[in-house]
Amino acid sequence: MARIVVDPVTRIEGHLRIEANLEGGKLTDAWSSGTMFRGIEMILQGRDPREAWIWAQRICGVCTMVHAIASVRAVEDALQIEVPENARIVRHLIAGAQMVQDHVIHFYHLHALDWVDVAAALKADPAKTSQIAQSISNSEKSSATYFRGIQQRVKAVVDSGQLSLFASGYWGHPAYVLPPEVNLLAVAHYLEALAFQKDFIRIHAVLGGKNPHPQSFLVGGMSTAMDPNEPAAVINPDTIDLMRTLVHTARKFVDEYLVPDVLAVAPFYKNWFSLGGGVGNFLSYGDYSSGDPNDPKMFLFPRGIVMGRDISKVLPVDQSKITESVAHSWYEYSGGDTGGIHPSEGQTIPKYTGPKPPYDQLDVNAKYSWLKTPRYDGTPMEVGPLARMVVGYASGKKEIVDSVNSALKALNAPPAVLFSTLGRLAARALEAQIMVNQLEGWVDKLDDNLAHGNTTIFNPVRWDPGSWPKSASGHGWHEAPRGSLGHWIEIDGKAIKNYQAVVPTTWNAGPRDAQGQRGPYEAALLNTPVADPNRPLEILRTIHSFDPCIACAVHVIDAQGREYTIPRVA
Amino acid sequence: MLANDYDLAKALKSRGITRRQLVKFCSATLAMLALPDRYLAQTVAAIGKAKKPVLVWLQFQDCTGCSESMLRSSHPEVADVVLDLLSWEYHEVIMAGAGTAAISLLDNIVKEDKGKYLVVVEGAIPMADDGAYCTIGGRSAIDIARQVCGNAAATIAVGACAFDGGLVRSSPNPTGALGVHEAVPGIKVINMAGCPHNPANTAAVLVHYLTFNDLPALDQYNRPLFAYGRIIHDMCERRAHYDAGRFVTEWGDDGHKKGWCLYKMGCKGPEATFNCPIVQWNDHTSWPIRAGHGCIACAAPRFWDHMSPFYDRLPNVPGFGVEVTAGEIGLGLVGAVVAGVSVHGLINTIRPAPKPADQPPPAVGKEN
Fold first, then answer.
1. Which are the contacts of A294, defined by CB distance < 8 A and separation ≥ 6?
2. Which residues contact A413 (CB under 8 A, 6 or more apart)?
3. If both were cysteines, with which of A42, A181, A183, B239 could A129 make a disulfide (CB 3.0 to 4.6 Å apart)?
4. Do B272 and B166 lie in a common domain?
5. Are both B216 and B237 inside the same structural domain?
6. How many other C-beta atoms can be found within 10 angstroms of the C-beta atom of residue A129?
7. Closest chain A residue to the Cα of B186, Cα to Cα
8. ipTM of predicted complex
9. How does pLDDT run across B8-45, given as a tens digit for each residue?
10. Residue where a domain stops, chosen among B220, B245, B260
């Protein structure tokens, strides 16, 4: 038996370490460890709840804004503030654009190199790549000349001997099986996606001044003032036009690149439809209401739970059943480390007991991660695009059922293939398509409201802290690109008393619980074949299929606090 | 006009870029750096070198927002930076290899390119508890930073966290976080403050370094003067409204729709130095004040503690009108920055004297 350590796991957000046991060419056990923590929740204590979103947003700069929206929702829930329709639509637009952006970047820049051999693209015949491109998509950039140009650019980089970001890849690994022509197609689209993401996300600049970290949220609405006749208003006929153009670009990209590319690559890796299944329990808080924000029946992504891959029934979500425990996390609980605590009463007392760095191996029988272990009714749950598609499919949500069925038809496969590494990939692409189709409707709705003089975008009744009750508490949920996100806040005397975030990657990447149950990452790695222990490409495939975001997942703090003395010049 | 024109042309061709593209890119960058056109030939020649300088991008206690911001670079586009301008070899969020492949690549760069490679640092460095709050490959962030920054030609600290610890260091600083120039004293550092850094400024610094083999002129916080030398309030598109006494007094009111001044809503523009209003974000699309929200002075030292509460109005401004300069208003919070963590809105303190604009960057860290 050999121990494999992958640290750093790259092409993810944050600092993740995977340790796994290899026996007979397959993984027999695995441990997931988050190796960085900052302590944002403690830093928030005592501050103005109206600005909590500005701080909480910095939990993550990849899924930027998701913590902002969860934070304002939590404060609005606590102070019982109703948000005007325009503000809800602007938030949907910002969050929806983020989801499309995130899913595109994830597939091309964080995940594709697990399936695509860049070096092999040099052997491709550009004319054949062109034929393939034209058979799967209406994209205008599909000529042999175009692909030859890309190939020459890659060749120039390879010939120079300076391979830049591609210098450390596992090129030539036996697990890469795409024909050279498909590799070239994917490399070309890697570069196209780089150009796309920086253009499309200008929609965040329009509605938030910048990306990452747009700056236009307010407790009670948005700062994006609307007026049909004022050029200085953030939302005016000109910016509506710009947003419409950007949304159109995104729709074209998802339809002509993302979805066809995923469906073209997947059939070459069919064995990955039966690997990486994980825990098989799926949770979705649901989001994107078409009307009442508190009515799950109006959600685009339904709220619900699917247990044990049984899509014949959807169970309701009861938030009181959510707990976090620290049996294998570097924290302690005052009442003992084996039990779980609801986030509204969350404790965060860090206690590092791991090896002193530098170290070679963690003691996985003891505590081994900065992530806590969330459970629903004591059970590990997977969250994310696959969970949303599974819960939506099982709920009979039309957009999701149609989308999933058409993909399954294209792949000639039953719904069971969804519960896999490739299933996560497919779910993410389909979800991007469902979302990109919503964006234009939201722009239209803003345009319509503008034309009819409905320009209210902020509810001022609770802006003045003098209007608040002495104490209040609430929670804010959001379906972020990586899954179900919840913030819990307690306000006392106009300041934050306690703040807790339970984050998608914590659900997926958390360590074992006191009962020894593995979380989704650890479970998904079981039985994964590894051809070469020195180049564990297969581990990356399954871990990347979850789209890890470790900065999000670790957010706890030292209740004592300290100021470190600046060292003298050495 | 170029001494080595033939080789340059060959080098460019081998990398798939036309000379026209290169000159266009260099001109745009010179404009950003406010350098005269006579440097163009030098810039073009430097960037056309056959062997590209190696760049290492380290991530410590970060949110990856500064990496994402770099991906949004539009002039030059990120693909051009990564494939043509530099050999961008180590950057965890986007590099091909992982685990030992990544670690040995980094070790190799430090050994083979010692003193020649550039390093970008994103995120704060936790100093408490033997560095246990951030490890990569089992090594602490501070251990890695000492080795990799210590052997680099120069370190570019991007974002508030790498600059001075940023949000991670804000009270009560649970992990003993510091910015890179405090955590690793004695190295040559340029600080690209901001939350996140603006990729247009960072790209300009890279080009400046490639051209002149040195950093641009810096202020007392080691921030480049071309980007951090002027006050936002003085360049703000809403400034005329301030001078005329037209203020937003409630979110969504008439003044808000008309783009009036956000000072009364807590805008920190009068305290903030950054070229945000000029360069803007995401291919010059917008910036936070245009999006209707006040500035949070994200490029200011220790801004999280010193500029918050973000919705509280800046300290008393003696009357409104053109005769009051933003510099005078700026005295208040810049002073508070010096005074300490808990002081909000302290006025009448003395601002530290900035270095003159033409002073060369401090020549520290030569012994490394």
1. none
2. A273
3. A181
4. no
5. no
6. 29
7. A569
8. 0.95
9. 566 666 666 677 777 777 777 777 777 777 777 777 77
10. B220
